Structure to design on (233 residues):
């Protein structure tokens, strides 16, 4: 059971907008630690999508955006495409554990 | 281009030991902290360990703290994970990953290797 909670699954139709949440606590996200987001296509190496809550590495489309507020963070994907169908993970740091922690992951299905 | 290549995985009996290596290229290895992350079959990502650029700071997940040891050789651009007391639940793909900016435990991991698979079974 991760200290960062993500919904197990979300779905949306092509072209739609979806949001994946990552809920933590005052020991991690709420303590001001950055949240990063990864995309993992089945069986592939995780790919960095968002770092430092809202920054996109070069090459990541602006359809992907991140935000953070209080003890939660969100990944928003707009203009959903078939190849967005992947698992998505949030990552942050927990000061009580003195450890980086991943969320449990969210499987995105494009209908 | 920054690249990481893990090696050393394989089949090991419960209670056994294994040392994983991660060879870095295409970036100044000695300037970046590094991490190990694993993923059991059908499961999510699990962060295991962090080592700063100078090895001065090391953090490890409670699940492996007393059994796994992370180290690095900056002269050879190598990262290691020494694993002992292996259990069936340690069966996973093990990735090494580079911090995006440097010595900061809350950094994102921007470069990942392809991973090496460890199977713990009798």
């Amino acid at each position: 059971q991760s200290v960062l909670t993500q919904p197990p699954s979300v779905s949306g139709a092509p072209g739609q907008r979806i949001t994946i949440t990552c809920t933590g606590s005052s020991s991690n996200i709420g303590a001001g630690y950055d949240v990063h987001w990864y995309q993992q296509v089945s069986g592939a190496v995780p790919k960095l999508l968002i770092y430092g809550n809202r920054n996109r590495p070069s090459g990541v489309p602006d359809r992907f955006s991140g935000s953070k507020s209080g003890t939660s963070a969100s990944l928003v994907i707009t203009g959903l495409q078939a190849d967005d169908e992947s698992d998505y993970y949030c990552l942050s740091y927990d000061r009580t554990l003195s450890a980086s922690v991943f969320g449990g992951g969210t499987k995105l299905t494009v209908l | 281009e920054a690249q990481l290549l893990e090696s050393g995985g394989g089949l090991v009996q419960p209670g056994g030991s294994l040392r994983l290596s991660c060879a870095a290229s295409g970036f100044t290895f000695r300037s970046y902290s590094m991490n190990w992350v694993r993923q059991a079959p059908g499961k999510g990502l699990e962060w295991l360990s962090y080592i700063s650029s100078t090895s001065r700071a090391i953090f490890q997940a409670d699940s492996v703290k007393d059994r796994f040891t992370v180290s690095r050789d900056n002269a050879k651009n190598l990262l290691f994970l020494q694993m002992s007391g292996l259990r069936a639940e340690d069966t996973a793909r093990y990735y090494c990953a580079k911090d995006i900016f440097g010595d900061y435990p809350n950094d994102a991991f921007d470069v990942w290797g392809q991973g090496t698979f460890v199977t713990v079974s009798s």
About this structure: The beta strands of chain A are 9-12, 18-23, 36-40, 47-50, 64-69, 72-77, 87-94, 99-102, 106-110. The radius of gyration of chain A is 13 Å.
